[in-house]
Amino acid sequence: MAQPENLLYSKEHEWVKIDGDIATVGITEYAQSSLGDIVYVELPKTGAHVVQFGNIGVVESVKAVSDLFTPVGGEVVEVNTELDGDPALVNREPFAGGWMLKVRLSDASETARLLSPSAYEQLIAEEAH
Amino acid sequence: MSRLASDHTFSPIIFEQGQEGRGSRYVESGGAPTGFLPPEALRADLPLPDNTELDVVRHFTRLSARTFGIDLGFYPLGSCTMKYNPRVNDAMAELPALRDLHPWTPDDLAQGALQIMWELERSLCSLFGMAAFSLNPSAGAHAELTALLIAKKYFKDRGETRRGTVIVPDTAHGTNPASAAMCGFKVLSLRSDARGRVSVDALKNVLGADTAVCMMTNPNTLGLFEDHIHEISRAVHEAGGLMYYDGANANALMGNARPGDMGFDLMHLNLHKTFTIPHGGGGAGHGPVGVAAHLVEYLPIPYVRARAKAGADPSAAPSDRMEFRLDFDLPHSVGPVRSFWSNFAHAVRALAYIYANGAEGLAAVSQLAVLNANYLRVRVRDFLDTPYDEICRHEFVASAQALKRETGVKALDIAKALLDRGFMAPTIYFPLIVAEALMIEPTETESKETLDEFVAALREIVSLAKSDPGTILAAPERTVVGRLDETRAARQPDLRWYPHAETPANPN
Asked: Is position A1 within any domain?
């Protein structure tokens, strides 16, 4: 499956969309498919400071509880409150309505440590073997 | 009656049946004892159901017919060892002399009960190669916590307080990291190798002065024997750590291999799994903790001690030549871990099972459990992937990953469809290292005919997934409540009855 081209990816299966100094973060199609039905998403509070690749919350599916990591560091300026009432939105629209948080980047050069769409696709091809 | 019996979805709860004055009241109004509680602790009313005895009997009999258990059908729930529980065990536990014994009975009037506990402890030591067992913990996770408390105190007494890390392979049961975290340890997850085992090299890379305990299950949750166990134990011991054996999979080992001989210092058993005690649905468990000689003084209190009676004939039966007591004075003990002394009725059941089988019988039990699992494995691999495909122990793991890609039918859907066909589902999505995992443990008590019926049902489901996936995605249809919305069932469970005046608008 092709990954959306306008995004960057982490090894932990998060995507990030850079728009000026604001980064929107979510989990990938591959991640939601592996997790199965998502029943709860725990996110940091608006205003929290997060560091790149740090643990910022959990995603709970009917299978397991998984840690959520942020692919970029900075200040959380918005979280997707719709996920409170409808966590399955992450399953239905992982790259759109299922976004999780927006971060004001503290260091734009951090994005150099993320994966391109093709590199990420190679990663999941290896994981799926 | 017919209305209730024929309707599969509707059954009023006991509070909604009967009416005031209908019931058989055994306590007369005003006849209850008074003065036990201060007035402010007393409630003005207590709205209890008011039903006839017949209504109550029918209600609960009807409910019992809606549930599923090992007494109704095959229950291949991986790592749970859902085997037949011989009724003779219950008959022994129900003997009035045992059943009616109060836990505060003085030791000299409870010699028989203490002897049962002692003989069970000695039997477990012999079967698993440990120096002593505490029968106190009530279940597996409780036993893990108890054992980790023992390890913590042991290191503290030795001045090794920097040992704060517990190593847990990624094939471990989920309770292992949870117990370690609960006990204040840092958890380090160890990736298994391409053969599904702990890699000795990877382990050596993480061992150090901070290593406290390495928690392992052997065979592991892939059903595979950790064949480098001696090297693993040696490496952990050389680093100054302790080895812990999670006994959830002990049904593969009895009488064939002993954790003590593999180098484990601590272990637990789930008597309710391996030693045939009815479990599941939250029923009482029993999780004895075993220790090697250097940890005996750390066991929880009380601990059953036996000693020779003065002047007794050494060839007499234990009950004539020995006396038993509860020892509350272990100087290094982690203390009490529960009220009273153990789930004693379960100790009776387990000992009855051990004596009915004997050492050779128990060895045969484990061999048959392994044989049944391998029979299922080679039949199931005809139509489902079986990663790590080699001779397994008491269970094996199949994967629906390829089927999901091809048809959209997941492990979860296969599990639901099995319910429609009269089987309990296997454990699914565990262990986490196998995508779309189905973890199947048949146990030794199932016949070849039952295993064949299960294979046929599974084969039919996989075949339907390819020809008509919609029918599998809609399953189950023949169960009491049909297919649940998984998200809502997890987030908005409707579990509690409220008198109508108190019904909250939104329970969440």
From this structure: no
pTM of the model: 0.88
Question: Per CATH, is B359-491 categorized as 3.90.1150.10?
Answer: yes
Domain count for chain A, please give it. Answer: 1
Please tell me if residue A38 touches chain B, with a CB cutoff of 8 Å. Answer: yes
Interface mutation target, options B173, B406, B487, chain A, most CBs of A under 10 Å: B487
DSSP summary character for residue B82: -
Chain A residue numbers touching B434 (CB-CB < 8 A): none
Domain boundaries, chain B: 2-66, 359-491
Orientation of helix B140-157 relative to helix B175-182, angle to 10°: 40
Residue type, position B151, single letter:
A
Orientation of helix B448-467 relative to helix B411-420, angle to 10°:
120
Which residues of chain B lie closer than 8 angstroms to A64, CB-CB? 429, 432
Neighbours of A112 (CB within 10 A): 7
Q: How crowded is residue B74: how many other Cβ atoms within 10 Å of its Cβ? A: 20
Distance CA B91, CA B81 (A): 22
Q: Residue A37: closest CA among chain B residues belongs to which residue?
A: B487
Helix (H/G/I), strand (E/B), else coil: A19: strand
Secondary structure of chain B: what % helix, strand, coil (to 5)? 40, 10, 45
Structure tokens at B15: 């509070």
Which CATH number covers residue A85? Answer: 2.40.50.100
Is the CB of A125 inside 8 Å of chain B's CB atoms? no
What are phi and psi for residue A41, nearest 5 degrees? -125, 120
Task: Give tens-digit pLDDT for B306-355.
Answer: 999 888 888 888 888 999 999 999 999 999 999 998 899 999 999 999 99
Give A93: exposed, middle or buried? Use CB within 10 Å, 0-12, 13-18, 19+: middle
A3 in a structural domain: no
Report long-range pairs for A17-24 (Cβ below 8 Å, ≥24 apart): A18/A105, A18/A108, A18/A111, A21/A104, A21/A105, A21/A108, A22/A77, A22/A102, A22/A103, A22/A104, A22/A105, A23/A71, A23/A72, A23/A74, A23/A102, A23/A103, A23/A104, A23/A105, A24/A99, A24/A101, A24/A102
The interface pTM score, or ipTM, of the predicted complex is: 0.74
d(CA A23, CA A48): 14
Query: Is B51 or B147 the better-scoring residue by pLDDT?
Result: B147
